[in-house]
Fold this protein.
Amino acid sequence: MAQDTVARAVRDAPVSGESLLKARGIEKHFGPVQALTSVDLDLPAGQITALCGDNGAGKSVLTKCVAGIYQIDHGQFFWEGQPVQIHGPRDASRLGIETVYQDLALADNLDIVQNMFLGRENVRNGFLNEDDMERAASKTLANLRVTTVRSIRQPVASLSGGQRQSVAVAKAVMWNSKLVMLDEPTAALGVVQTNMVLELVRRLRDRGLAVMVISHNLNDVFQVADRIAVLYLGRMVAQDHASAFDRQSVVEYMTTGTSSRGQRVDGEAGTHGAG
Amino acid sequence: MARAEAPESAPDPTAAAEAAELELPPEIVAQSLGQWFRGWMVRIRSGDSGVLPVILGLVIITLVFEAVSPHNLFLSAGNLVNLFQQSAVIMVLAMAEIFALLLGEIDLSVGYVGAVGGVIAVQLVQPRTTNWPWWAAIIAALLVCAVIGGWQGTLITRLRLPSLIVTLAGLLVFNGLMLILLLLGPFSGYPNLAGLSSNLQVLYKLMWGAIDPIVSWIGMVVVVGLVGFLLWSGDSRRRRSGLVAPPVSLTLMKIALIAIVSVVVVGICNINRANTGVVEGVPWVIPIVLFVFGAWMLLLQRTQFGRYVYAIGGNPEAARRAGIKLAAIRTWCFVLCSLTAGIGGILYASYLGGMSNNVNGGQLVLYAVAAAVIGGTSLFGGRGKVLHGLLGGLVIGGIYNGLYLLSFDVQWTFIVTGFVLLVAATIDSLSRRSATSGSAARV
């Protein structure tokens, strides 16, 4: 409980306005294993929240709970202030929640348009309406300024890693989504490609979407994150504006669940109480 | 091109981007015929050659057999029509097999499922027993084949049995069923299509009947005109609204190619091919095969169902996450595979003028798989077109026909076809390897 108080105090102080998604007291266990313990999470619109944590901290479980793939045992989600139930992936996408998983789930033999519309094709008189789909896909890519692809009709197999990630993100935002969660979007990418994807993530935020990025890479986290949330053994041990953290404190939160430095920073700032 | 307009977005390392561009299908990036041709050459050199190997194979087969066949019989009108009739069954069975291959599965039962369909159709029209009208017999035969496909597909998708095993069992079971069906009725195992009954005649004429030359020409003009108009209006509509479209000259070239091939085929068919008397006109089997081809091409390229088949073949997990019902689509593919095999079986019965226990469905299925792969369909799923069945079927029919003209025995047909299949499978494997290693290098 002491840790809960820390987290809540850290969280409540700086967040202004209503969060798009609020999770309160989320609990999830698999048999005897408690994967999430009373987790609170805020994902405000127009901000990038980085979700950090060591392996097994519960990042993926939390993401999958929000995406509707796992059912939570206890707790409550609030969407635009209203309590909501997320019982399955369809509930999540109906609310406007889209997830880009690490493996991207693209079919290499299909082209960009075909992948972006996979499962939600535009059909007229029983036949695919390729013209409208191509127009919508190219509009979405242009809005996100994904301009490095040579042709929107090229098979995904011929794209670079960064371009593939961009297509997966564009696929996620095409459906009027309001919250996009990205699982390790830069894990397999080189420097240039990483910058390209991070730039894309910033553009999502600038369009007013709530963005959650799961990442191990603290370089990326500090480059793009407006807010940072750290999970440690299934508990949310820290959640605040990115400026309240430095690398050292994030690493300490990730590995030990507390941070001497982090608390000192908070203490000096005088904003956030420390338990 | 787009990169120059948006310098602020981080570009790829130039070399990688160039490499990626070069491997693109030329028809989606080329602005002119010259560009298209250059892009095409690059793709061929990088191992992704499309239908080029099979077209080359057809040209080689034609030249070699024309040169060495006695009295240059190979390219005579009579032999070419005969060749098409021989290839038709393999073409249709190959188009059936493509439904399984696109999923990354295989159907070894198409030969005997087709044979079961053929026997049912032949038995039902016999005037001395059931005496069904020809159309009812065909519908019943195709329905039985579709049910067989549904049964096999259900075992494969719901019980998760490997398609290789289920359809291998099917090869045996339906061989047995064919033999049982053959023995029904007073035909001592050889029901045939000889006789004056109009229902027998119609089934016989599926392969051996010909359309009047004048009607053939008119039909050809209508079909080519319609296809040409659809191609032209589709491409120019896309060009007008700024969508990805091939250059005008390429569209015109495609239409011209279709027109030339059609004129040549109809022209050859309209030459009198009989030694005595008059036999001329396009055999019925040609429009039948083209109809199957057109229907399945539309289904696979232009409908949601077809898109899902390709998606499942390419990445089943992506398809599942997209909300596609994998089991249903897969089962329907096996239904369509067996249904198409039934069409092939009925054509085969017509070709043989009846059915007998000499029908070798095991060999037919191997020819069908070989034809699909020779045509360019991948054994690994997700890559292939109905057109590949047509072209691959012509290759196998050409080898069979040519060696027969040279009075080689059937063992040489097997050996030559086997080697052609090996070459085709090697091309498939190599182009697949170069594609995957290429994308791995670009990650």
Observations:
- Residues 1-96+180-186+206-275 of chain A form a domain with the Rossmann fold fold (CATH 3.40.50.300).
- Chain A touches chain B through 47 residues (CB under 8 Å).
- DSSP finds ten helices and twelve strands in chain A.
